[in-house]
Specification:
34% helix, Rossmann fold, globular, alpha/beta, 14 helices
């Protein structure tokens, strides 16, 4: 009926994957049939012999056998956890470390999910830990540039000049108010780069070649990609070692995630074989809503350890910080947002060591 609401309990779950069923073992016998490997009882055995054999079998099953001793007279260990020891060693061998320098693209074709906020505040948190960080603003809107206190009108060179005019990257890097944090700004000229790159030779690799000369100057290079899957985003992915995907805890942000992962796979197979999804970070999280809790559960069930444990909350202080041209760790160092991005920086940099010099 038109006036009835649909049953909420039958709603489709977006990322629920069926568990694979293992095929039955052909070596195992049919449980409904007797085990044919057991020898049948001889019909020539007398009833007294049958009773005696059953008593002997009962004694063998109820009385544990004494462990044999070796030359040293010791008794072998019967610890129930001994069988689990190989599994514990296998877990310890998993290494999630990464080598520096590292280029990480922060990408999601959905706008308003926190790409620029994550690039600015994650870069500031990494710089606070002692890493030398470059935030490369690849978005024509230039929000990462203004979010770090750099005015578009006061820059002499931008990322547009690096990509289209082969200007050295070092000539366009600007320092920020945070120690060890630098930015390569973006201006409105970058909006025309999508069209100008179409006839260019090897257009997908222009940013990668530009970063080669300055790659070793920074521990982390964070690329703030535009909210699209155009040539600028492809350039960012082709020049990166990893991809970090911010996801807003709402349905629309999840809807385009599959397309982004398919494009990452295409770039990996055709342009950058070393590219991998480093992690997924949940942003704008509001624990008071059921939707946010459900989105978090579905994403963690589907992507598993790829999802960072740290969740960035929805706070007003994070939204206010860009208007002052400061990252959240400078604007309000004790806020929940600053604590969240510091924890995220620890997860992203896990297993890395600062380079000397």
């Amino acid at each position: 009926m038109a006036g009835q609401e649909p049953d909420r309990g039958t709603r489709r779950r977006w990322f629920r994957l069926p568990m694979p069923q293992s095929p039955p073992d052909p070596r195992a016998g049919d449980p409904a049939r007797p085990n044919e490997s057991e020898a049948p009882v001889s019909s020539e055995e007398s009833p007294a012999e049958m009773v005696e054999s059953r008593e002997t079998a009962r004694d063998d099953t109820t009385t544990p056998a004494q462990p044999s001793t070796g030359d040293s007279g010791g008794v072998p260990s019967t610890d129930v956890n001994a069988a689990d020891q190989p599994q514990e060693e296998a877990v310890e061998e998993i290494d999630d470390s990464m080598t520096l320098p590292r280029v990480i693209s922060i990408a999601n074709q959905k706008g308003g999910v926190g790409k620029t906020t994550t690039a600015v505040n994650l870069g500031a948190a990494l710089a606070e830990m002692g890493y030398r960080v470059l935030v490369l603003d690849l978005d024509p809107q230039g929000n990462a540039t203004t979010g770090l206190g750099i005015s578009h009108r006061n820059v002499e060179g931008s990322i547009y000049d690096v990509i289209m005019n082969d200007t050295p990257l070092d000539d366009c890097v600007e320092p920020t108010s945070v120690k060890n944090l630098f930015v390569c700004p973006a201006t409105i000229d970058l909006a025309g780069a999508e069209i100008e790159l179409v006839p260019a030779f090897s257009r997908e690799l222009k940013l990668k070649r530009a970063l080669q000369s300055a790659r070793d100057d920074y521990d982390f290079t964070l690329i703030d990609c535009p909210p699209s899957l155009g040539l600028l985003t492809v350039n960012g992915l082709a020049a990166s070692d990893d991809v970090l995907v911010p996801i807003q805890c709402e349905y629309y942000a999840l809807e385009g995630l599959g397309q982004l992962l398919r494009n990452v796979a295409l770039v990996k197979s055709n342009l950058n074989p070393e590219l991998d999804v480093r992690g997924i970070v949940l942003t704008m999280y509001d624990a008071r809503t059921r939707l946010a809790v459900q989105v978090e559960r579905e994403v963690r069930e589907h992507f598993g350890p790829k999802v960072y444990r740290t969740v960035v909350p929805r706070t007003v202080r994070i939204s206010e910080a860009p208007s002052f041209g400061e990252p959240i760790i400078v604007f309000d160092a004790t806020s929940r947002g600053a604590v969240a991005y510091r924890e995220l920086a620890k997860e992203v940099s896990r297993g890395t060591t600062r380079r000397a010099g």
